[in-house]
Structures are given as C-alpha cells and as structure tokens.
Amino acid sequence: MRKLDPVKHEEKRQQILQAAARCFVRDGFRGASTSDICAEAKISPGHLYHYFPSKEAIVSAITVFGLAMATEIFSAIAQGPDVVTALLAELERGIFGGDRSKGTFMLDLLAESARNPGIGEILRERHCEIRALLAKLLQEGQERGQVDVDLDPDLAASILISFIDGAKAMTIRDPGLDAANTTEMLKIAISRFLRPPSNKASAKKRQHRGV
Q1: Residue 159 sits in which domain range?
Q2: Contact present, 182 and 96 (Cβ < 8 Å)
Q3: Which parts of the sequence belong to the HTH tetR-type domain (predicted)?
Q4: How far apart are CA 118 and CA 35, in angstroms?
Q5: Count of domains in the chain?
Q6: Is 69 a member of any domain?
Q7: Number of Cβ within a 10 Å radius of residue 96
C-alpha cells in the first residue's frame, strides 16, 4: 500500500477547491456539476470523491478557507492603531477593490441556502464564526475608545455583515455605479454607525439617562 504524502495530498485538495470555485462562479452552485468540477480539475470522479464526498463538502472547505483568511485580516486590524480606519480600508478593498466574482459566489450560496439545508447549515456556522471574530474586533475598538460603547458588539457585527453583503449586491444590480463615490458614501455610513458620538451627544445621552 502506497504511503500518503500529506504535502501532495493537500496540494491536490487545494487544486480541486480552486477548480470548484471557478465552476461555482461561472455556473452557480446548482449549474456546476461534479463532472464539470472534475473536468476543470483534470481528475476522475473517483479521484474527486477520494477528497470530497459531495459538492456541499467542497463548499464547506471553501468557506473554512475564507474563515482562515478573515481571522488573519481581523488579527492584523486589531494590531493597528485605529480599528475603524483599518476596517474601513479592508472593506473598501473587499467590496470594490477585490475580485467581484467572489461576492457573486457568496450571494449565489445565500440563495441556495434557502433551498438546500446542507448549504444553509454551512453558511450559518460560518456566519456565527465570522460574527464572533468581528464582534471581538469591535470590542477591542470599544476598549480603545474608537467604537461606540453603546453598541452591542454581537448585534453590531451582524448588522455590519448584512450591510457588507448588501453593498456587494449593489454592483450586481447596478454595474454602472460610480465605485469611488459609492465607496466613500459606504465608508461614511459605516463610520457613523461605529464611531463614538461627539462629546456633546454623549453628554446629552448621559443626561437623558440621568447619569
């Protein structure tokens, strides 16, 4: 029996994931068959099932990779001088400056999750994990005085994720959007949502509470 080479195994696994992602972006989750993925990855169906038993398993692996990337990004943001400024810069790159096909792929998965319980469960798990990472980052910002302390970090993280998903959909609904102006307006909206209120507003809020 041949001994498994873990390095080559992981390399092939990543090749399959990349091929599957291209198929999903091009044809959608439902439109991309396992035969399409095999052809794109240049492997046989039997070889594919040696790595992934289903398309859902492939999606799960892709989202795990996305979670790892998010962990690295949020960690880097937390180490910077200003959480909100760094977060806005990253969102700008992710929404309008990066590969828009990734956003299209995630929106397709969101639609699929309404019909496919397996995909729905995968996305819910990843959402909870991403939300926890983002909430932790917002808490860090609150401790530094950079994020409004009156915001509930978990709820604010959920709202922010929904805001970002909606922003990604804008480029699909209206491809002719002025990316620069739209980005600036989004940054203003998110900044106003996250930043602490002015001293005057804070004083009024404390007075209203009887503090």
Answers
A1: 55-198
A2: yes
A3: 10-70
A4: 20
A5: 2
A6: yes
A7: 19
In whole angstroms, give the CA distance from residue 61 to residue 99. Answer: 19
Residues 132, 133, 139, 145: what is their CA dihedral angle, to the nearest 10 degrees?
-150
In whole angstroms, what is the distance from residue 36 CA to residue 53 CA?
15
The residue behind tokens 């399959």 is 16
Q: To which H or E segment does residue 189 belong?
A: helix 179-194
Q: Of the candidates 31, 146, 30, which has an alpha carbon nearest to the alpha carbon of residue 85?
A: 146
Axis crossing angle, helix 100-113 with helix 153-173, rounded to the nearest 10 = 110
Q: Is 151 in the same domain as 192?
A: yes
Other CB atoms closer than 10 Å to residue 199's CB: what's the count? 8
Q: Which residues of 46-81 are buried (b: 16+ CB within 10 A; e: fewer)?
A: eebeebbeebbebbbbbbeeeeeebeebbeebbeee
The verdict on 91 and 191 lying in the same domain is yes
What is the H or E stretch that residue 174 is in? none
Q: Which pLDDT tens digit goes with each residue over 123-171? A: 999 999 999 999 999 999 999 999 999 999 999 999 999 888 888 788 7
195: tokens are: 């930043």
pTM, full prediction: 0.80
CA distance 148 to 151: 6
CA 164 to CA 185: how far, in whole Å?
13
Structure tokens at 24: 């999903």
Both 31 and 66 in one domain: the answer is no
